[in-house]
Amino acid sequence: PKRFRAQFLCALSRAAAAEAARNDSCVRGGWQTTLAQFPEIGLWRDMLDRLRCRVLLGDGKDMGDEDKDALLNKMARDDASDSVSPWAQRWRDIISDVLPRA
């Protein structure tokens, strides 16, 4: 059904990313036809990358693309999950106030 398409695309994207991570950024040939049938997955991955960049770097208007890439790679290596931008911290606080705690 159409109502489950977003969940399916998200799961498919995560499966393809896991396959790529396991095989040094290479996926099997069968994935190429699958990903070609769902072009939204590329848009989904781009949106996630931009959101990840915004969370870690904030606006980053004063940084070049190479600087952003270098900083994101360094933060990924250092496991800097606590180091988020003020923009992300603000939204994290808002969401934690609205959603119940588990």
Characterize the structure shown.
The structure is a single chain. By secondary structure, the chain is mostly helical. The protein is 71% helix and 0% strand. It has five helices and no strands. The chain has helices spanning 5-22, 29-37, 40-57, 65-78, 86-98. The radius of gyration is 17 Å and the shape is globular.
Our count of helices gives: 5
Number of DSSP-assigned strands: 0
Helix content: over 70%
Strand content: under 5%
Categorize the overall geometry: globular
Q: For the terminal residues, how far apart are their CA atoms?
A: 30 Å
Question: What is the average per-residue confidence, as pLDDT, rounded to a whole number?
Answer: 78
N-to-C order of helices and strands: HHHHH
Task: Please state the oligomeric state of the protein chains shown.
Answer: single chain
Nearest-angstrom radius of gyration? 17 Å
Q: How would a crystallographer describe the biggest sheet?
A: none
Structural class: mainly alpha
Low-confidence stretches: none
Features:
102 residues; mainly alpha; 71% helix; 0% strand; globular
Summarize the structure.
The protein has 102 residues and is mainly alpha-helical. Helix content is 71%, strand content 0%.
List the helices and strands and how they pair.
Elements: H1 5-22, H2 29-37, H3 40-57, H4 65-78, H5 86-98
